[in-house]
Amino acid sequence: MQTGKQECTQKITLNNHVKKIFITHHQIISPLGFDSASNFEKLKLKKTGLKELKRRNGNVYVGAKVDDDELDTAFSKIGIIDNFTKLEKMMLLTIQNLLDDSNFKITPNTGLIISTTKGNVDCLDPSSPFYKDEKRAYLPTLGKVIQNFFNFKDEAVVLSNACVSGVLAISVASRFIRQEAYQDVIVVSGDLVSEFILSGFTSFQAISSQLCKPYSKNRTGINIGEVAAGIIVTGDVAKLNENSIEITGSASCNDANHISGPSRTGEGLVLSIKSAVKEANIDLKEIDYISAHGTATAFNDEMESIAMGRLGLTNVPLNSLKGYYGHTLGSSGLVESIIGIESLNQNTLIASLGYDENGVTNELNIIKETEEKPLNTFLKTASGFGGCNTAVIFKKATTNG
Amino acid sequence: MDKQVYISKYCHITNNQVFINGELVFENTQTDTTKNYLKSIYKSLDIKYPKFFKMDNFSKIAFLGAEFLLKEEDNKNIAIVFSNNASSLDTDRKHQDSINDLDNYFPSPSIFVYTLPNIGIGEISIRHQLRSENAFFVSEQFNTTQHNTYETSLLTEEKTEQVLGGWVNIDNDEIDVFMYLIGKKGIEKYTKENIQNLYNK
């Protein structure tokens, strides 16, 4: 029996027979562009998708939304625009782009994982064209729409675990493949900027009326954004290409502290990173870059700084991508992981937009300017409501080793 | 090493009864509201945890199920894997009602925070001090294949020693909770079929 402080992962059997898991392709649909490549190019130029937008009540806020007309034009090539919600169109188009880009064929051995916090919750709003379809706001309905469109054999694995969902989905995909439930998995994530979300975060007084400033002394809260992202995950080395990235370790540990505020000690995040690093069988020193959560709220950023300080990671180049996309909720972890993957492949660190002066207890090595640098391994972290934290380690795949 | 996983305990909560390992332990057919029904279960547990009264109905049912299964448990290395059909819609609708009318607009942070299904997992983690792996899945019906795959991976990859798993659904005041604790010891082998049979019981 154990007492006192409990590590979430006691021991990882380091076993050479553990199947290696890879990401071979990725796609993004965001206000910055409708594929991963154009998104990364915009980030290199410090272009943000955030801008001033208007709430229903006329109030101005800063957020990032995918243009409806642009989406419909792109979607009309694959489906009937009026039959699908905005989120469905974003997710379906993401998967279609993944398939077109990769020549990947969905088989009965391909799993589907959907990461979202709120799905089609905007259909609860009486102004929604789907308001009368009372099943539309249910997440299994969203799963069914995506499953049927692409003829996946099995019901979708719909993951809804607050703001860690997008990173956790990568971890869940690896685990399903290791258990041989599937040979490959397509992960798609998405959430919308809805009145539901804006009103809620405003009631928390967490929304900023300016561009967000993660880790800065002058930070004033979060911006909400919308993005869909998708990846192909495989355990089949025959499917790898020169840009494939290995998922070497992952873990999620709860803070067990507070449902809406992060732990002051960063305990859950520290445990998650330790466990992921242990599974990846690397030393903390081997981490070349950290793609952190950095929502630009006082509590979150401070918690991350405490956690990074405890782990001795404050010198590792780190960014938050919230200054480009805003907080994209259930999609944030996936889109930010994709940018991290591109960073590895292009050996380029992306500047943490919005940062000026240090505003956290343990000063972090924030990436101030986009720069080229040889990169091999990066750590992605996320934390969210419900006290959840997730960490995943990615490294360049050595296809011949 | 013995890889066999066992079900050590399970519970059902319905709209008027609670069963532990299939045996009726609580019944209340008299209450008017879900809130009062859940309060009566809480009272029967003879615990003092005022935070319970701040929770939404979804977190309350999750909390109560876990209370029945974890109250004599000392191990803290227990992952939580839940699923349901309605996610947090039961509370989402309350938040939506508060913002539909611009002249009567009163979104509340204490409701909004519960518009995520994993908050129930957070409440259990705080109560039992579990700094463990969490995941919340949503499916049409209780999907024992998804649960079995994910829970088995957490146990075989030694991310946890035990898993508190189950189906935790509340939708328009209809309660359907089936929760189980699995690990190295137990009363029945942990298989998809056994879990499905116990759920149907």
Observed structural traits:
heterodimer, A: 401 residues, alpha/beta, Peroxisomal Thiolase, Chain A, domain 1, 2 domains, 10-stranded mixed sheet, 3-stranded mixed sheet, 10 helices, 15 strands, 20% strand, globular, disordered N terminus, B: 201 residues, alpha+beta, 8-stranded mixed sheet, 8 strands, 25% strand
Polypeptide structure, described:
The complex is a heterodimer of chains A (401) and B (201). By secondary structure, chain A is of the alpha/beta class. Chain A is 29% helix and 20% strand. Chain A folds into two domains: 21-239, Peroxisomal Thiolase, Chain A, domain 1 (3-Layer(aba) Sandwich), CATH 3.40.47; 247-396, 3-Layer(aba) Sandwich (Peroxisomal Thiolase, Chain A, domain 1). In chain A, helix 1 crosses helix 10 (332-346), helix 2 (68-75) crosses helix 3 and helix 7 crosses helix 8 (298-311). In chain B, strand 2 (17-20) and strand 3 form a beta hairpin. The radius of gyration of chain B is 17 Å and the shape is globular. In chain B, helix 1 (34-45) runs parallel beside helix 2, helix 2 (57-70) packs parallel to helix 5 (119-128) and helix 6 (144-156) packs across helix 7. In chain B, strands 1, 2, 3, 4, 5, 6, 7 and 8 form an eight-stranded mixed β-sheet that branches. Chain B is of the alpha+beta class and 201 residues long. Chain B has one domain (6-200): Peroxisomal Thiolase, Chain A, domain 1, CATH 3.40.47.10. At the A-B interface, helix 4, strand 5, helix 5, helix 6 and helix 7 of A face helix 3, helix 5, strand 5 and helix 6 of B.
